[in-house]
Every structure is written in structure tokens, then in C-alpha cells.
Design a protein that fits this description.
The complex is a heterodimer of chains A (116) and B (587). With 116 residues, chain A is α+β, with helices and mostly antiparallel strands. Chain A contains 5 helices and 4 strands. With 587 residues, chain B is of the alpha/beta class. Classes of the chains: A alpha+beta (116), B alpha/beta (587). The interface between A and B is medium-sized, with 32 and 24 residues. Strand 4 of chain A pairs parallel with strand 6 of chain B.
Chain lengths: 116, 587
């Protein structure tokens, strides 16, 4: 739990609703990965994401993988065009990262884990 | 040409066309957009690309029962619905009926970070799902170029676009893709590279402060199409394209006549007037009574119970009605009856195309038998001569097809040649009346003659044209030894002639009287001579009688003497005393 001090800072700035989610650390980072079928690129993206999360957000993240082949209607809600797309639902604001997440530096910047 | 088309269509069995339902557009493309293929519609901002695309879908859904998907990259669903509501398209209803699906693709560049390889499969899935969910046959992508600004990697976007168009063809949907006009290119990002089947260019030009929209089919693979720039306009009913020449010269020619409303003018035209459905040009200098001629024509039509439409570009309705009343033409009663409709506007109010469109629509709605345009020369204030002529050609074509008789007045300016019709439309016209002022003896008189009247044996004479309280009167101009005389010169000449005639008549009467007197004189002489002759004749006859008597007496005496002498029995003396042998005695 290296990131505990940062977590406390964030809790102070967040509102009451978010404080309820404080009980489970897994809800801190709500990430959605949109893919279309089990393509090599999708698998690479998922692997890269998992690696990054394990390294930087261990225990505070939740990854949801959405296969648009199965649920094409979901593309509309998050305005997904590119595959694969990673959407940071929480913390707000929403951010999107497209591509196979092979550039860790840029993923960290995109997720606001690392300052630009 | 037609054989070639037939051969082509035989070979290209696959090239089907999808009608857009946009008035005029299907005519210039000879059937619409290529079915099952993408079409690129490009143009600068405000050229009407989105509207064209939306109308393609809405008409497809409402007229041809083909559901459509509108994928917008620029406007949200609500914005789109609001924007086209003014054209009478109820998008929300169509969406509720599953005839239309709006999909707003919103990409915020600042939200997006790019890391590594990706493709646009999600867009394909999204579009594919939209198409399948309502069974769409038509698709609009407005405008795909947003992808270039949204996604940083242009190479990927290009590769994916190429794939997208192939995919669309594979789906068998008729697609319209819009693209912003670029410098020296049809589209800013070269979309035309991918859409090779049909490219339509929309243009919006401002000339003399009046805007004109035009459309051109840049290319349309595998079919013939109109290649001109076609004006179009957007009004409260949406898009309308006006084909100039695609209508061709195939109209019927009626043999019925329509009166000009002026008896003597009818007489000049073989006694019957103009052919129905012909176009008549009335040209002349200012103040020669062109509008009045038109008013007569309209009045005659209304009196026959036909509908007439008067497009006035100079005067208001009230003014025309008042002015015509002063010469005994009552137009107001026909307006009240609903037989006559005025349409007054300033030429500079709109561009030529809108004028034409308004006229088209008004004519289609009112369905008149007679149309007057007073005057056509005012359109030159809006467009140049070529544009005006093109516009009038289209109008005349339209009138001819509907068999409406059109009268067009044209003002000839003072300097120009009198037989110059300014707008250069004389060759389009079937009949041409020329009204001109003839100046002589310090007065201006109007003269009218028929310059041409196709298919009608017409008088070649100039008639003097007088505006009276009972309308226009045509008077024979004086043509004699002293040339053509009009106005007071004509009337004084007529008076002089009448005087001379009177004198001639008097001289004649004098001679007659003289003759009669001579006759009487000779008859009296004759009588006298006859009397003399009779008396002389009587005297001679009497003498002859006397002589006879004397002879008879002498014969008697001789007989008496013979009897006394007992003349021979064998001899007898006849009455005349001559000796004669008795027949019996002689033997």
C-alpha cells in the first residue's frame, strides 16, 4: 500500500458518494477495455493493461473487458471508435486511451497516473 | 447516344440506381445515386451537404420505404432533428417508427491518448449494428473527415477508410459520404480517392451580392449523367435541383388558339390569335404599352374562364389594377373570382434560381392557362445575360410542357437596337410583338407590328396603337404617297383626303347634271324633228292617195266607155280597164 497517502488526499477532495466506495479499494480505478473478438491486438492490450495496473495500481483497480462483437450497442455509450480502447470511468473525468497500450509511458500519462 | 446507353445498361446489369426523391436530382443523374455504392458529396461550408444527405435518407424512408442510418460526426441527434424540422422533416417520428437511426459519433481529441496499434473496428461494429437493427438500405456518414482531426494517426485513418468503403459496398447499402471542400482538391483530406463511383460537388457562390447554389456531378462511373452545373435551392420543402437542359424539346404543340384580347390584333394573326402553349415576347421601349397588352391578354383569358398568373417585377398589384382600370380593363373582378393571381416581387429580392423556383412552385400550385412575366429584362439586375437566358429557357420549357401560354414583356432601352430583345431570348419565343414609338411632327405615336409568329400567317403591317378608355385600339396607319403617317398627321391627312373626296363627288354630280340637261335638249330636238317628219309624211301620203283616186276614176271611165261601145265578148276589161282574154271564149 504505497499509495496510501495519495489515497487519503483524494478522499478529502472527493464528495460523499465516492466516500462510500472507499471501503473497497478495487473501485478506486474503474477501467473498461473495449475489444472486438479475441484478436492478437486485443490480447496484447489486455496483457499490457494488466501489467501496468499490477505495477502502479495494485489492489485499487477494476478492469472490465467489453467485447463489442457480442455487445455492439455498448460502443455508443462510451463513444468508442477505435479498437482497442481503454476508458477510465473512474476517477473522473473520463479519459480514453486507444491502441494496444504498448507504450507504458503514454498509458500512465493518459490515465493521469503520471503527470504529463 | 441512346443506343449506347441501351448497350451499356445491358452490359452493366449490376448498375442499379437508387432514387433520392429529391426533385430534379434524379433527372440529372438519370435515376439517382448508384445503388449499393458510396457517393461522395463535397462542398464548402454551408453548401448544403448535410441537408442533401439528410433529405436522401428522409425521402428514402418516407417515399421508397428504405430505412436509413445517419451517422453524424458533427451534430448531435437533437441538433440534427431541430435543424431539419424547419424543412418539415420529423426525425423523431421516423426514429420512433424505426425508419431512421441517428448515431452521433463524438470524438474529443483532448480525451484521447494514443498508445500503439489500433483500428476502427468499433466504428464498423457500431455502424453494422445500426444498419442491421433497422434493416437500413441507406447510410449517411457526415462527415468522415472529422476522423482526421480526432485521431492523430493519419495513416491508420486512411487505411481504415479504405476498408470502410469496401465494407460499405459489401454491405450493399447506398451510402452518402460528405466531405469539406479543400484547396485545389474536392475534399480537404482527399476522400475522393476512396469513393470512386460517384462524386457530387455542391457550390455556393455570391455574385452581385446575390447567392446562388449550384451542383455538379463530377463523376458518375458506369452511367451517363447531366454534366452541367445545375442550380439548386433549399426552401421550406428541402432541396430542389433545376435541370436546365435535361427536359429537351419534346413538348406537344397544340393547334388551339388563344385570343390576344384585342380583336384587331387577332385579325393580324390570321384572325384567331396565338397558339395555346406558345411563348410570346412583347418588346418595346419605355411607355409603349407592353404591360397594357399583357393586361388585355390576361383579361381575355379570364373572360374565357381560364386561370391567369401575373408575375410583376415592377409594380404592385394595386398599382396594376388601378392603372388598367383607367383604360377600361377591370382586373379586380377576376382577382376576386380567383381566376387571376398576381405575384409581385422585386427582382433583387432573390437570386435567379429562387425566382425560377418560386415561379415553378406558384405555377404548379395555381395551374394557370396563361402566365405573364412583366418584364423579363429586370432579371438582368440579378444575373448576367447568360444566366438570365438559361433561367428563361428553363421557365419556357416548363410552360411548354404544361401547355401554358406565356407572355413576356421586355424593355428595350433607348440606345439599343429596337429588334434587340436585351435578354437575347427572341429565338426561344414563338411570337414576337414589337411596340415602338414613332416620332414625327413633334409628337410620339405608338406603332405595333408582328415581328414573328411561328406557324401563323400574320400581317406584315404596322398598326397604330392607341390607348383609349376602352383599352387598346389598333388603327390602320396611313400608308400613301406621303409615307406612313400616324397620330395627328394621320388624322389631318385623313381630313384632307375626305375634303378632296367631297370635291370629287361634287364635280361628279355637276357633270351628271350637265349630261342630263344635254339629254333633255336633244330629246326635245328629236321630238320637234319627229313632228316635222310626220307632217311631211302625211302630206306625201295624201298626195299618193289622190293620185290613186285619180287613176281609179280614169279606169272607171274607160270601162264605162267600153261598155258603151259594146266591146267584144271575148274581151273583158278588168277593173283597171285592161284587156283580158276570157278563158273559155278563147278556145
Amino acid at each position: 500500500m504505497k499509495s496510501t497517502p495519495t489515497k487519503k488526499q483524494r478522499q478529502k477532495s472527493s464528495n460523499g458518494r465516492q466516500q462510500q466506495t472507499e471501503s473497497t479499494d478495487a473501485n478506486r480505478w474503474n477501467l473498461r477495455l473495449y475489444v472486438a473478438g479475441q484478436t492478437p491486438r486485443s490480447l496484447t492490450a489486455f496483457k499490457n493493461l494488466k501489467d501496468i495496473c499490477e505495477e502502479y495500481l495494485k489492489g485499487q483497480y477494476h478492469i472490465e473487458v467489453i467485447d463489442l462483437m457480442e455487445n455492439p450497442t455498448l460502443a455508443r455509450g462510451d463513444q468508442i471508435l477505435a479498437i482497442p480502447t481503454l476508458v477510465r470511468k473512474l476517477p473522473q473525468p473520463i479519459r480514453k486511451i486507444i491502441g494496444d497500450l504498448s507504450n507504458t509511458e503514454r498509458v500512465l500519462v493518459g490515465l493521469d497516473i503520471q503527470p504529463r | 447516344m441512346s443506343r449506347q446507353i441501351r448497350r451499356n445498361s445491358k452490359l452493366l446489369k449490376g448498375l442499379q440506381k437508387e432514387r433520392t426523391g429529391i426533385p430534379g436530382f434524379d433527372e440529372i443523374t438519370r435515376g439517382g445515386l448508384p445503388s449499393g455504392r458510396p457517393t461522395l458529396v463535397c462542398g464548402s461550408a454551408g453548401a448544403g451537404k448535410t441537408l442533401f444527405a439528410m433529405e436522401f435518407l428522409v425521402r428514402g424512408a418516407t417515399i421508397f420505404n428504405q430505412p436509413g442510418v445517419f451517422m453524424s460526426f458533427e451534430e448531435s441527434d437533437e441538433e440534427l432533428a431541430t435543424n431539419v424540422a424547419s424543412l418539415g422533416f420529423d426525425l423523431n417520428q421516423l426514429v420512433a417508427d424505426k425508419k431512421l437511426l441517428l448515431d452521433y459519433v463524438f470524438i474529443e481529441r483532448s480525451e484521447i491518448e494514443e498508445t500503439g496499434e489500433y483500428d476502427l473496428e468499433a466504428l464498423f461494429l457500431r455502424l453494422g449494428y445500426a444498419i442491421d437493427s433497422i434493416g437500413a438500405k441507406r447510410v449517411v456518414l457526415d462527415t468522415l473527415e472529422a476522423l482526421f482531426s480526432a485521431l492523430p494517426n493519419e495513416a491508420i485513418v486512411r487505411a481504415e477508410l479504405r476498408r470502410l468503403f469496401r465494407w460499405l459496398k459489401g454491405k450493399g447499402v447506398t451510402a452518402v459520404i460528405t466531405g469539406e471542400r479543400g484547396d485545389g482538391k474536392l475534399t480537404r483530406h482527399g476522400l475522393e480517392e476512396y469513393v470512386a463511383d460517384c462524386v457530387i460537388l455542391l457550390d455556393h457562390r455570391v455574385q452581385n451580392q446575390i447567392s446562388t447554389r449550384r451542383m455538379r456531378i463530377v463523376k458518375y462511373r458506369g452511367t451517363s449523367h447531366g454534366t452541367n452545373e445545375y442550380p439548386f435551392f433549399i426552401d421550406d420543402k428541402g432541396f430542389s435541383v433545376l435541370p436546365i437542359t435535361s427536359l429537351g424539346l419534346t413538348h406537344k404543340a397544340p393547334t388551339e388558339y388563344v385570343s390576344t384580347g384585342i380583336e384587331r390584333l387577332d385579325n393580324m394573326l390570321n384572325g384567331r390569335g396565338f397558339y395555346r402553349g406558345s411563348s410570346i415576347l412583347v418588346s418595346g421601349t419605355a411607355g409603349t404599352g407592353k404591360s397594357t397588352l399583357a393586361a388585355h391578354f390576361v383579361e381575355a383569358a379570364c373572360a374565357r374562364g381560364e386561370r391567369a398568373l401575373f408575375f410583376a417585377f415592377e409594380e404592385s398589384q394595386d398599382q396594376i389594377v388601378r392603372n388598367m382600370r383607367s383604360i377600361g380593363i377591370d382586373l379586380e373582378k377576376y382577382v376576386k373570382k380567383g381566376l387571376l393571381q398576381f405575384h409581385n416581387s422585386r427582382p433583387s429580392a432573390w437570386g435567379l434560381e429562387v425566382h425560377l423556383a418560386v415561379m415553378h412552385q406558384t405555377i404548379a400550385k395555381f395551374n394557370p392557362a396563361v402566365v405573364v412575366i412583366d418584364p423579363i429584362t429586370n432579371f438582368l439586375a440579378v444575373g448576367d445575360e447568360i444566366d438570365t437566358k438559361a433561367m428563361l429557357t428553363r421557365l419556357i420549357d416548363y410552360l411548354k410542357i404544361k401547355q401554358i401560354t406565356g407572355m413576356f414583356t421586355s424593355l428595350t432601352s433607348g440606345q439599343s437596337e429596337i429588334e434587340d430583345s436585351e435578354v437575347g431570348v427572341s429565338s426561344l419565343m414563338d411570337a414576337w410583338l414589337l411596340v415602338k414609338t414613332i416620332e414625327s411632327n413633334g409628337e410620339r405615336n405608338r406603332g405595333l407590328y408582328i415581328l414573328k409568329a411561328r406557324g401563323i400567317a400574320h400581317s406584315n403591317q404596322i398598326r397604330e396603337f392607341v390607348l383609349t378608355e376602352h383599352g387598346i385600339q389598333l388603327i390602320d396607319a396611313y400608308v400613301g404617297a406621303e409615307g406612313v403617317l400616324m397620330g395627328s398627321a394621320r388624322s389631318s391627312q385623313v381630313a384632307r383626303e375626305r375634303e378632296a373626296e367631297l370635291e370629287r363627288q361634287q364635280a361628279h354630280a355637276r357633270k351628271q347634271r350637265q349630261l342630263r340637261r344635254k339629254q333633255e335638249l336633244y330629246e326635245a330636238h328629236l321630238q320637234a324633228l319627229k313632228g316635222q317628219y310626220e307632217s311631211e309624211r302625211d302630206a306625201i301620203l295624201r298626195e299618193l292617195d289622190d293620185e290613186q283616186n285619180r287613176l281609179r276614176v280614169a279606169a272607171d271611165q274607160r270601162r264605162e266607155i267600153a261598155r258603151l261601145r259594146r266591146a267584144d265578148d271575148g274581151m273583158q276589161i278588168d277593173e283597171n280597164g285592161a284587156r283580158k282574154a276570157r278563158k273559155g271564149a278563147a278556145r
